[in-house]
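Limitations

Structures in this collection are predictions, not experimental determinations, and the ligand pose is part of the prediction. Treat each record accordingly. The example that follows, with zinc ion as the small molecule, is included so readers can see exactly what is and is not provided: the inputs are given verbatim, and the output is the predicted complex.
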Amino acid sequence: MSKIFIGVGHGGGDPGAVGNGLKEKDVNLSIALHLRDELKRHGVTVGISRTADEDDPTSEEVKECNAFAPDYAVDIHTNAGGGNGFEVYHTLSGGKGKTLAQNIEAEVAGIGQKSRGLKTRANSAGKDYFGFIRQTKCPAVILECAFIDSADAQKINTEEKRKAFAVAYAKGILKTLGISYAAAAQDDTVQAVKRRYDLAEETMAYLCAYSYADALLERLAAVHVSGKGASAEELVRTRFQFAEETMNYLKAYTYGTELLDRLATS
Ligand SMILES: [Zn+2]
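Predicted complex:
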């Protein structure tokens, strides 16, 4: 199982760069959460340094990352200082970190963001300048999606646009891991299941969060249920041929009884 660690730059009392009504800490978190979801959707085990607006210094990120021991780590940032375009930093020694940087850069170009190129930066001792690259034990890169303090900010000022960066990052990471990117084709299935059983968004989110969500949704989409006499639970179990684990997951839902009723009677 592949493991990726996502560092989410800044947070809490440290807003990072600001400009055009945006704070870097918020932009970074938005991209990072979408990236986490995309990677998890592909079966990657993800560690993330924060999932809310809270203090999260680089030293903590490095500690968490090394404890998590991922295959690769990415640190999500947003640039400032006037300019435009994407930048990615990798280690001075190149190797796997540079390959990851190249793969991500290629995907970012694919969403129309100009690249300022792959970068390295040395400190006075000739070592990698950035702690996230120098102190993490795995290959690590720092991703700077765009400039927050120039017109470039228009590329990151909506959730949709930030998600586009996250998808590009995910594609580059997955390519590096040797995992092929699956377009969110599952969305069609999700919508079909939602309509067929008339389920709420919240219920769909619960189903999609299941470890074997793809298989679960495929079955719900493909099988037509009809039957009388048995309990809703029995009907669902036999008609969909769900494993015990899946039944337990469905029953554990806050509105599990209603969910099973709908699956049984639709
Ligand atoms: Zn930053």
